[in-house]
Each structure stands twice: as structure tokens, then as C-alpha cells.
Sequence to fold (158 residues):
Amino acid sequence: MALSLNGADELRANLQRVAAAALAAGRAELGRIAHDVEQGSIERAPYKEGDLERAHEVQAVTRPAGIRFVVKVDESVAPYAIYMHEGFVAKDGTPEMPYKLGVASMMKNAGTPHMGAGVGWKFLERSFTDATADAEIRLAGAISTAIGQSVGVTVRRR
Fold:
């Protein structure tokens, strides 16, 4: 008795193409999510002279197991950034959370200070929470669309 499988090489090539398309789409969407975190943090960051806003950056770190995106505030503004993010009054060691926003921050503010989309403390943390709330859906959508395109099928999202 013999078993013959025709087209195995073609099947392997097609599966590799699908896997590559899915990986590329996942990485691209993850990058967009990271930039959404960055933008949301900039929008929520207290404003005085703009140093804190300009210090935001996204880094793509390639690892053997894939890629990781890091959203951070440059260390050059570290003491100020930490104070603004954590909301502590460090002079006497007594925490005051949240601190009062200055005039420029209040002019920039589009929400309730220190909450949701408002300017104030935990600006990076609140942005991360908002931007990643639908990350799983976004990633699944991007990957399924890429897989569909790689095999010539249109994927309809509900």
C-alpha cells in the first residue's frame, strides 16, 4: 500500500506566504497601536513649555520571538516627567494627587483634568488603557484581512 500526496511543496509555500502576511500585518497594527498610545499620552501630558510633549517616543525592539514596541518619555526630562506623571509634591514628601494644572495645561485640556482624556497625572498610563482597550480586535482584524488578501478572499468584518 502506498500513499501519495501531490502539491505538498505548493501547499508549504502557500502556508509560508499566509504566515508571513499575518506576521507583517500583526506587527504593523501593533506599531499603530503604540503610536496611538504615544499620541494619547502627548494629548494628556501637562503643558508648560512643550518639553514633556516633545520627549515622547516609540521604539521598536526586535527580539528573537518577535517585536516589542516601547512608548516612553525621554530621560532628559525625567524628574519633571515623573513628577507630572505620578502627581507627587516632593518638597515635603507629602503626596498631593492630583496637582493643580497650570494655565497652559488648562488651555490645552479637552476633558476632566487628571481623568480619562483630560490633561494631568498618569497621562501615559491612561493613554495606554484607552489605546489598548480594543487591541485584540484591531490585531485580529488586521491579521484576518492580511490572510484573506494572501489567499484571494475578502474578509468582511461584523
Remarks:
- The chain has a mean pLDDT of 87.
- The radius of gyration is 22 Å.
- Strands lie at 56-63, 66-73.
- The chain has one domain: 22-142.
